[in-house]
Amino acid sequence: MNDFQSIIKETAALVEEALDGFLPSQAGPLGRVADAMRWGALDGGKRLRPFLAIAAADMFDCPRTRSVRVGCAVEMIHCYSLIHDDLPAMDDADLRRGRPSVHKKFDDATAILAGDALLTQAFEILAEEETHPDGALRYRIALELARASGKEGMVGGQMIDIYAEEKDFDLAGVTQLQRLKTGALIRFSALGGGIVGGGSEDDLAALTAYAEDLGLAFQIVDDILDATQDAETLGKPAGQDAEMDKATFIKLLGMDGAKSKAAELVDRCKAHLERFGDSAAPLKGAADFVFERKS
Amino acid sequence: MNDFQSIIKETAALVEEALDGFLPSQAGPLGRVADAMRWGALDGGKRLRPFLAIAAADMFDCPRTRSVRVGCAVEMIHCYSLIHDDLPAMDDADLRRGRPSVHKKFDDATAILAGDALLTQAFEILAEEETHPDGALRYRIALELARASGKEGMVGGQMIDIYAEEKDFDLAGVTQLQRLKTGALIRFSALGGGIVGGGSEDDLAALTAYAEDLGLAFQIVDDILDATQDAETLGKPAGQDAEMDKATFIKLLGMDGAKSKAAELVDRCKAHLERFGDSAAPLKGAADFVFERKS
After folding, report:
1. Is A117 in Cβ contact with B155 (below 8 Å)?
2. Chain A contact set for B184 (CB, 8 A)
3. Is a pLDDT exceeding 80 seen at residue B239?
4. What's the confidence (pLDDT) of residue A1?
5. Do B33 and A155 touch (CB under 8 A)?
6. CA nearest neighbour of A276 among A56, A54, A11, A53
7. Which CATH number fits the domain A2-292, given the four candidates 3.90.1150.10, 3.40.250.10, 3.40.50.300, 1.10.600.10?
8. Which of B135, B148, B149, B171 maximizes the CB count within 10 A of its CB?
9. How far is residue B284's CA from residue B290's CA, in Å, rounded to a whole number?
10. What predicted TM-score, i.e. pTM, was given to this entire model?
11. Nearest-angstrom CA–CA distance, B208 and B187
């Protein structure tokens, strides 16, 4: 197991444990919404976003107790967006990670409220003193997360994804959609980790550049996998982009063009991290992982 | 027009103007969600919550530029909760303040996303430096708002309201529901205004006690109005509580008991403010208004 694989496994376990603590089961009338929050946020997958936050903060010798909290906050935002996305009014998805989605397990009203509560709790965690003793750092992290996840970030991307005539998108349009819908939270993850670690402005700029290229590479590889893998390997339906005549990086760049663009981005990703020396090995490993993944 | 009536009119106008600035119309693919946010948040009513925040901050000579931002944040939370509450999966309400609710004017997906974006933007506004130059005050306000609006606050109250067997509630159960569903944001409003104004811990405790009694009095008067007024006066269906055999303060205390409880709370409200002298006149006026209102 290489450096990246062992660290992402380790950080995923830390995040799982911390989320379990932030989201206790409870008796009484609030038990149902508490259970729905747990259903939507626990037993997650690789926890890539928290990994990025924790690995970025590790480079500055930040105590894990702090960076795990930043990781949990971004993961709560990610999970709330999946819960709301899966609703019948949005993507109408019955399954998520092979299990019933929150509204199937509970119901639509509970899913809406559980999502709202996770979104709110993300900001509660960031505002608490345990995240960092310096209030100025805490509010900067909260501000960056709000911008990454609101109308000018993730929510805006979901809106475009639902309503824009994507088949008419050019490369700039597809890139903007990616930048908002998935890129903004990935960008925040590395940046938030750098902030909680106390990185300099130059450090933060390098982390931001890294995460922007990483997010774009991730999406291009997603498009490649959708076009080339079967459903069993992906764990979700394959070939949907072509079927829906969706503007993807494959359609716009061709398969070879998309592959070489992804490879170029991964190289650029790693180059942004040179200033951090050996301590950046886990983040560089994430870039290789994104490029080489098969599902 | 008395002190309270002129000031609440003034603060409502300030909040309307500020919200209009925070929520600009925009062209392009984000225009739809921007319009939905405006539809759900502008042209609001009395703006009682922002009034409480601004009037509390005024007692400490806080610049209105700061307290209006706290007022806008709590109003965005209030408005997002109405947008999500009105969804078919929740209360299924077609009208809000006499106009189509957001999901009727747009659609369910847009209403979900507009609510999510308003919730997120509330925390963005609080995290920005313009709210207060002292980061420690800003994060405390954000923390209080997160706690007031999340699972242990407003969202939890909505969950209880939807799922608990309310007809079986005793006085403690009805009081807890009120405390969470509407009380928590009212409590935050006065407290957040006191924090941004730089009040002492004793000041904040007095404001909190005031707002807790005010919120409870508000709910009791709501129950009284539902039982005694006609739909035209209320601007919404009347007599629904009795029809649904809902546990209300009327059912539990009787009409006379409810009226004397409300009067007692209003007196207590005002007593909590004695330490602030004449500067508390607008907040005292709010307590009288809550008691005397007819709709």
Report:
1. yes
2. none
3. no
4. 47
5. yes
6. A56
7. 1.10.600.10
8. B149
9. 10
10. 0.94
11. 6
